[in-house]
Amino acid sequence: GINAEYMGILSFEDMGDTEQIINVIQNIFMGVDCHNWELCQESMTEEVVADYSSLSGSPAAKVKTVDLLNAWKAFLPKFKFTMHFVTNWIVSVDKDTATGFCYGHAIHNLPGAEGGDMWEVYGTYNYNFIKTPEGWKVSST
After folding, report:
1. Among 56, 62, 85, 138, which residue's Cβ finds the most Cβ atoms within 10 Å?
2. CB 122 within 8 A of CB 30
């Protein structure tokens, strides 16, 4: 998968908790953009609380990660490309749990779409994390 070690920057083991947590989120977004669903799944617990209420109006709900990824797989490949950018991290670690916040900007390209080829989304993300034997994982987004 795409991670700091792959890019030759820093091995995962050399990262502190905050850097590992940021890397987990970046892996999810890179996984989405590259359609690497395995990388996304490795970055989340088996079930996650997914909150898309600001986008869809639907309330937050606990879902199986595999079901969330199946929804992404059905929706995202329709775009010619997507590009997700995340920045301005705030991470707070408390032993084996953590919270994270960041700004997000996503570009979705769908040539010939009514209203234009580009759909851009701006917003903020709030995450909860659990430290597992395999490392930090998202438990709520």
Report:
1. 138
2. no
The answer to whether 22 touches 89, Cβ cutoff 8 Å, is yes
The CB density around residue 23, as the number of other CB atoms within 10 Å, is 22
Pairing assessment for the beta strands 135-140 and 81-94 based on DSSP bridges: unpaired
Instruction: Kindly provide the residue ranges of all beta strands, DSSP E only, lying in 21-117, ordered along the sequence.
Output: 44-50, 61-64, 81-94, 97-109
Beta bridge partners of 9: none
What are the C-alpha distances in Å from 96 to residues 27, 47, 61, 130, 133?
20, 17, 23, 6, 10
pLDDT above 90 coverage of the chain, percent: 82
CB 138, CB 36: distance < 8 Å: no
Nearest to 130, CA basis, from 91, 90, 98, 86: 98
The rounded radius of gyration (Å) of the Cα atoms in the chain is 15
Model-level pTM?
Answer: 0.85
